[in-house]
Amino acid sequence: MSRSSEVDRHRALGLLQAGLPISEVSLRMNLNRTTIFRVRQRLHETDTVSDQPRSGRPRCTTQRQDRNLVRNHMNNRFLSASASLRHTRERNNQRISANTVRRRLSTSGLRARRPYIGPILTQRLRHQRMLWAQEHAAWDRIQWRSVVFSDESRFCIDHADGHVHVWRRSGERYQADCVREHDRWDGASLMMCCCNGSLKGVYTLLAAACLDL
């Protein structure tokens, strides 16, 4: 049936009950004759002219396949929808789109978000950083003036610089499997400093800043 308002449908029924033919009602209402006929037919079949619930487009995945999609992304939070799509096609021999994967994940509460990028710190490195901080906590401005920090050079050697998303639910930003464990600058970082007029490597003075390397 054409998308006509419920008010127009009742007006059309009123004209039909007044004895006007379908063709005349169609001209007066500027509606297709088939629409007027189906309005009357629906009234006889359902006692109403309101739209009936529609089943919609058939789902291209089963509930079991939906659970597998969610399970794959829960096991690997950084798995892209395209990669999951290829895996599903190979496993089920079924053509689905990346948008379908995103909708299934969204239904389960998973959203693609920018991950929190944190330094790679073991318990030992955390302890060493704390020791370094405690040793230099009492330094005054005069002592810090003898240290000159140079600009850092960034070398990304272990991954692409493109955006990476993580599939997570609300409140899982800092969860272990949702954190992208990397050093702060996403790669090797070189820094030299001048202390008391002599050039030294950061391994002696800035140990905490280099524990990420």
UniProtKB/TrEMBL annotation:
GO molecular function: DNA binding
Domain of life, per lineage: Eukaryota
One of the GO biological process terms: DNA transposition
Matches recorded under Gene3D superfamilies: Ribonuclease H-like superfamily/Ribonuclease H
Pfam families: HTH_Tnp_Tc3_2 (PF01498)
Classification via SUPFAM superfamilies: Homeodomain-like
InterPro entries: Homeodomain-like_sf, RNaseH_sf, Transposase_5, Transposase_Tc1-like
Transposase Tc1-like domain sequence ranges: 66-137
PANTHER family in the record: SI:DKEY-77F5.3 (PTHR23022:SF135), TRANSPOSABLE ELEMENT-RELATED (PTHR23022)
Name of the protein in its database record: Transposable element Tcb1 transposase
Organism of this sequence: Elysia marginata
